[in-house]
């Protein structure tokens, strides 16, 4: 299955809907459940400790003046690299199918983001995560199809976590706002680890922030210029009535009024440049 963000960079530049709607939608990964991960235990009392990940984010995540959060990859110390590895190893040793559903959701989101962070740290100097070609093959650019972690004896890829676990089990459109692909076009890396207590507030805030930012939604005279995420995964927004109703749900009053008057969707765009902090 072609990676979420690897199909030849087709969405790198804005283009008319007609040009994008066919080819990109064809290759965008579908949400296909891996039944192995359907188990859960709502009576469980165990909580996963994500505090090390929160500490890492607070040290290296950098809010930008342009509204895009970046990461000081070059500044990560050897000690913090080791701490990141130790936390990821702890997650890998967790029996995730014995957790409550809310714990599982946070587990998989934080694991995905932590693994993406580690992947970029292991490839210093890259201009884009798509340049980290771990998947193999000419047409599969990027790291998303490489097996990068083993949980409960199963080797997993980033694509497995996103498209075979998170999307099909929870069917939560806002998951796209909290899994981060280390690119400027992507919704920001969360400022702290997701936890069950903060999950709803963080999902809501992340959705509002991305919809409000030009890389998510730009209202133009000819229509809406949207993030390609809304094209690649249009089906995921159907629970909200489709992409535009979803945007209206999370837009502020002024932006919602502008969206309602737009003549339609004019195109999609996505910036694959690495979310590297300057300096």
From TrEMBL:
Annotated ranges, domain DUF547: 98-211
Highest taxon in the source lineage: Bacteria
InterPro entries, per the entry: DUF547
Pfam families listed in its UniProt record: DUF547 (PF04784)
Official protein name in the record: DUF547 domain-containing protein
């Amino acid at each position: 299955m072609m990676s979420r963000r690897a199909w030849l960079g087709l969405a790198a530049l804005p283009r008319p809907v007609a040009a994008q709607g066919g080819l990109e939608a064809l290759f965008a990964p579908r949400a296909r459940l891996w039944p192995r991960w359907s188990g859960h235990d709502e009576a469980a009392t165990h909580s996963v400790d994500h505090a090390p990940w929160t500490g890492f984010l607070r040290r290296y995540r950098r809010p930008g003046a342009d509204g895009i959060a970046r990461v000081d990859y070059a500044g990560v110390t050897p000690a913090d690299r080791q701490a990141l590895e130790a936390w990821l190893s702890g997650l890998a040793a967790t029996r995730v199918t014995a957790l409550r559903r809310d714990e599982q959701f946070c587990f998989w989101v934080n694991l995905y983001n932590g693994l993406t962070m580690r992947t970029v740290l292991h490839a210093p100097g890259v201009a884009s995560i798509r340049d980290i070609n771990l998947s193999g093959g000419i047409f599969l650019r990027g790291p998303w199809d490489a097996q990068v972690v083993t949980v409960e004896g199963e080797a997993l890829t980033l694509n497995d976590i996103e498209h075979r676990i998170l999307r099909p089990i929870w069917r939560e459109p806002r998951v796209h706002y909290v899994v981060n692909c280390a690119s400027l076009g992507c919704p920001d890396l969360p400022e702290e680890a997701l936890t069950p207590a903060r999950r709803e507030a963080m999902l809501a805030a992340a959705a509002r922030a991305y919809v409000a930012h030009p890389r998510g939604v730009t209202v133009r005279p000819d229509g809406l210029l949207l993030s390609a995420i809304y094209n690649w995964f249009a089906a995921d927004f159907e629970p909200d009535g489709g992409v535009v109703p979803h945007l209206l749900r999370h837009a502020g009053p002024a932006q919602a009024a502008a969206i309602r008057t737009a003549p339609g969707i004019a195109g999609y765009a996505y910036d694959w440049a690495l979310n590297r902090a300057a300096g």
